From TrEMBL:
NCBIfam families registered for this protein in UniProt: organ_hyd_perox
Any GO BP: response to oxidative stress
Provenance organism: Flavobacterium omnivorum
Superkingdom field: Bacteria
Family of this protein: Belongs to the OsmC/Ohr family.
Protein name per Swiss-Prot or TrEMBL: Peroxiredoxin, Ohr subfamily
Regions crossing the membrane: none
Length: 140
């Protein structure tokens, strides 16, 4: 891989601590969500941060594909839902669902675009074969 960009973030205290990026832009307290035994859902957590990164990255990949295909669409959105659970080996794993809205095209074209974006997106390439990623799409 030819590296184009590298960044760092540091966690202190794990899921009940804080995360900070090297430039200080990201500086968040993280806590267990209520569903995992936390007191409430008032803080960020690793799955939330992963969902934010995956949705932003995938939307960029989608728009790159749209541009390369020279297709006219309205503004796209991508929502990433990330779940954590126990796996069969006694550890934990993640699953994700990515829902893209691609206005101005048929559902068939939207489906083709999301599939192509899934081949381009670095998050999709990193997770392929390691976690279930479900793709859904709408055009409104």
């Amino acid at each position: 891989m030819k590296t184009l960009y590298t960044t760092q973030a540091t966690a202190t205290g794990g899921r009940n601590g804080e995360v900070k990026s090297e430039n200080g832009i990201v500086a968040l307290e993280v806590r267990y969500p209520k569903a995992l035994g936390g007191a409430n859902d008032d803080y960020a957590n690793p799955e939330m941060l992963f969902a934010a990164g995956y949705s932003a990255c995938f939307d960029s990949a989608l728009n790159l594909v749209i541009k390369k295909e020279n297709i006219q669409t309205g503004e796209t959105t991508v929502t990433a839902s990330v779940s954590i659970g126990q796996n069969d080996a006694g550890g934990f794993g993640l699953e994700a669902t990515l829902h893209a809205t691609i206005p101005g095209v048929t559902l068939a074209v939207a489906q083709e675009l999301i599939e192509k974006a899934h081949q381009v997106c670095p998050y999709s390439n990193a997770t392929r074969g390691n976690m279930l990623v479900t793709l859904t799409v709408s055009n409104d």
